[in-house]
Amino acid sequence: MIAEPIIAFFLLWDIRKILRMSTDVSGWDKKIKLTIFAVAGLFVIEKIFHLEQVTMWIWHFLLIAIILTINFNVVFNAARSLMFAVLPFVIISLFSDLFKLLLGNEYEVIDKYVDVATIFSIIWMVAMMIISKKQRRALEKERLKTQAEEELNLKLARQKENLENIVAARTSELVKQKDELEKALVDLKATQAQLIQSEKLASLGELTAGIAHEIQNPLNFVNNFSEVNTELVDELQQAIDQGKMTEAKELANDIKENEQKIVYHGKRADVIVKSMLHHSRSSSGIKEPTDINVLADEYLRLAYHGLRAKDKSFNALMKTDFDEKIGTIDIIPQDIGRVILNLITNAFHAVAEKKKEQGDGYEPTVSIITKTINGNTQVRVKDNGNGIPDKVRDKIFQPFFTTKPTGEGTGLGLSLSYDIIKAHGGELKMETKEKEGAEFIITLPTK
Amino acid sequence: MKILVVDDEKDMQMLFEQRFRKEIRNGEINFVFAFSGEEALTYLNQHVHEVVLILSDINMPGMSGLELLKHIKEAHSIPPPVVMMITAYGDAENYNRSMQLGADDFLTKPVDFILLKEKLKIKV
Question: Of A91, A305, B7, B47, which sits 20 to 30 A from A352 (CA to CA)?
């Protein structure tokens, strides 16, 4: 008779434990607590007052009540396996007592069977309880696992949101930087265009001075021969009036010769102005057949006069060696002219510097040589200045690199020249010997 | 009066001969022409004391007019020939340099022959 109260007690205890795992069922919790106390109390009373015969039925009733409660209350779904565990025992125990009561002595016939059944039901109960416990533990583990997963997911979701915020912030920073850089690039391109333009203007400026001189000479002749002719016409009229025909004829002849000079020098001035306009105009970009010897000669003289205009004491020997066999080659004359001008100007500067150092005894010489070699046309600009030092040699074609003091050069001349020659499919090379001079060699394809 | 004109422009000879044709015809002036500084010096060395006035351009290939001026003034001939510079570059630097080297006068191109004739009258 101890088994039933004990089973009831532990059953209730387990149910309570199971209940606690699920959600809010505080109402049931109190009832179960009460019932447990009742069971404990009743057990004590039963032992003290030896009321087994009475309480026996109470235990049966209680157990059945518990089983039915579990069965018919959704709340106790988790405890169903417990119910199935104790069910056989409870029934067998109940019926065993019922039979004892009803059958009296005849009970001994089935007593053995009842005992065996009871043992089996107990084994069943124990086994089911063990299985049930295992199941519960597994369930609990599952539950914990799910809970942990949920927590992890939550954490991940939060981290993801955090990262997205960071990425968004970075992206907007980068977009801002990109915009700034784009703007800077636009500014740089504009500045570059300005600098190239100012380089062109600078080289044009150098020309203008030389050109002014070039024009003054023909202008001198045009004006003066015209004035002379005005006087001669008066003398002619006088001679005619006086009938001095021979004299008149001589005068007429002089007038004619003078007019020829005027026309000649007037045309000369025209050519000079045209060539200056030609140089200042942006390059047409179209190649035309050009006599490179004429081009080189023209720019050589322009460069020379330009330099003399800036530095009155300047003087140099100009040597030319033009290969007559070249004929015309297809080039953009303004561009190649600009390159030749740049090289000649550099050469003149180099020899002028050396002249300042060395003074008398040094004969500054700049030579231009044209030649046709291996189907290519070569233009060489040579000077006997101080040459180009080793440490500077690779830099000379770099944009903005200059050895002139600030304000005296843009440093773009050679770099632009290099680009122009490259665009023509040619090559610009340099040979130098320190202290002795330098030579720049333009090689252009003839076709 | 013998005048040496130094200029690389060959037409200067014709111009001078035209503009001074009266004086040349009268025998007042006798012109000689050199087309470079070197030529001028050679002539001067060969005809010492004959030339009383030298008119020289400044910008010429080879020896410049200023160098020629320097050589003439350093030659210490007695009496020293009068040297006037005629040039397209009428700027202060050229002028000062010319004066420093002892030029007697400085004229700019295009040449004003009337002015030149007056200066010649004064100098000689």
Answer: B7
